[in-house]
Amino acid sequence: MPGPRPARSVTSMNRGTGADAPPLDLLVHAADVLAWPMWLLGPDAELLWSNRAAAALLRGPGVLALHDGRVQAPGRPPGELPALLGRAQQQVAPALLHWPEAGVTLSAQALAPPPEPRWMLLLSGGAAPAGVAADVRAWAASHGLSAAETRVLLRLAEGDTPREAAGVLGVAPATVRSQLRAIGRKTGLGGAAALQQALLRLPPLRSPAAPAPPAPAAPAAPH
Hints:
- By secondary structure, the protein is α+β, with helices and mostly antiparallel strands.
- The protein has 2 domains: 23-125, Beta-Lactamase, CATH 3.30.450.20; 136-200, Winged helix-like DNA-binding domain superfamily/Winged helix DNA-binding domain (Arc Repressor Mutant, subunit A).
- The chain contains 9 helices and 7 strands, in the order ααββαββαβββααααα.
- The chain has helices at residues 6-13, 24-33, 52-59, 80-89, 136-142, 147-157, 162-169, 173-187, 192-200, and strands at residues 38-41, 47-50, 65-67, 70-72, 95-99, 104-112, 118-125.
- The strands form 2 sheets. The chain has a 5-stranded antiparallel sheet with strand order 2-1-7-6-5. A two-stranded antiparallel sheet has the order 3-4.
- It is elongated.
- The N and C termini lie far apart (78 Å).
């Protein structure tokens, strides 16, 4: 597995103006303490470095795998991970991608721009962050959307344009446009922008409510 490349990566992670870069061994130790898998990626998701948790995850079957020195997501649409990294380059906040089936969330933070881009990728478990995992599937089912139409809707919920959704799902842009027309007929919302606005108004998924504690027993009647 490739080792760290400190010259660019460590310096780009240091956000203190005029401050010296922290010692590399200190950063590596701090990253290894993390329970969350963390990767440093280069162009085309090339693996530059990973902490212990991430290295262990790549050695076994999991949601991410290493192929020809690049991090990939087996079983996922081929354009999904590149699209996440692309979104991260276009915004200040980390770009998030939740995989409900696996119960994990990927967080990508751009560290350096092209032509030598760098990303920090974190994998966390548990429920999706509030505002990211609106109950899109239930909304789609309530409007009678097909499985293919629901997949398009889920990509729109992640912030994709129709063309980006087509790339992530591995279908032609014309196919996505056709599915959007079908979604519009069923929901009464025409166009990707109107659908995305409607999805933003959906409530976030919530964990099942904890059972109420048992009521206290009534005092025994005096004899």
